[in-house]
User: Fold this.
Amino acid sequence: MSSFVCLKDFEDNAFKVIENTALDYYRSGASEQFTLNLNRKAFNRIRIRPRCLHDVSQLDASCYLFGKHLQWPVGIAPTAMQKLAHPNGEAGNAKAAGEMGSVFILSTLATMSIEEVAQAAPNTCKWFQLYVYKNRSLTEELVRRAEKANFKAIVLTVDAPIFGQRWADIRNNFSLPSHLRLANFATKSSQSDGVIAESGGSGINKYVTSQFDASLTWKDVEWLVKLTYLPVIVKGVLTAEDAIMAQEFGCAGIIVSNHGARQLDHVPAAIEALPEVVKAVGDKLTVMLDGGIRQGSDIFKALALGAKMVFIGRPALWGLACGGETGVRDLLTVLKKDFVDTLALSGCRTLKDIKRSMIVHELEYAKL
Assistant:
């Protein structure tokens, strides 16, 4: 990996080493994957307007988020079943995030438990991503375990009453391999061993339909906010209307996200939806973004549009596949250098120097 100079190098190598069914699960989007491709294309339509002759001899990419000092504004998004990529699993990603001064978000559907990840990465800033189960006592227990394990926030996914149609998973009859389990639940429970495509189709879709509470409303978000002393962040918001609802019901933050383009196809790219969310609540809630981040300029563009932090999902899996914790650390190192270089070449010494006026949509230049 010493010769890897960009995230695409890690991705190309990961595609060679991850088993095909697992690879299809990780890389696929919903339906015809229009939004999956849009997540990248939308970034490419934004131009940076760099400023010259600014002193960038001393750069500082650090930031504060919910009272925590971080080395840079990039974290690892929640992705399910990470042991499909490497035996280090979620612990590998969590430890690498800590070493790089980043946030790690643990998925409810993890192949390592809350307690295992907490023990493996005690010094990492960890958040817990929550799905609300039909069994509310089970959901509350997950929150209490996250609190006890010193996780710093609850990230409630709000765009998944059901899972989207991912054609590759249906064709592959995707199931969790027999040597793995959803480790946040008791052994041999329906919640831990239920990702099985017994009669064809996608095992993960079958699991979600049987376990997740599709009746969830904003009143349930209010219930969660009152349940825990941790800040509640809603993930999956794409509109100003829902951003305002998140504010009204007591959330501390929003992650603008389309779930890696894995839910409803033909929704906006996350970066396209970011401006309206920031305009609606950006001075009241902490607005963040995930989806499509692949290089330092992407991070810069998201921050210029008002995000306080961004998260990477699939790239962290590609790094994990390329050597476990070491692979993720190497990937984050490459991405951080790219971001710091972008800061310098744009004339910014700190994150506060990044201004909205420093980016413009390509159509502005088409008017010339």
Observations:
- Residues 7-362 form a domain with the TIM Barrel fold (CATH 3.20.20.70).
- The first strand starts at residue 46 and ends at 48.
- The chain has a mean pLDDT of 94.
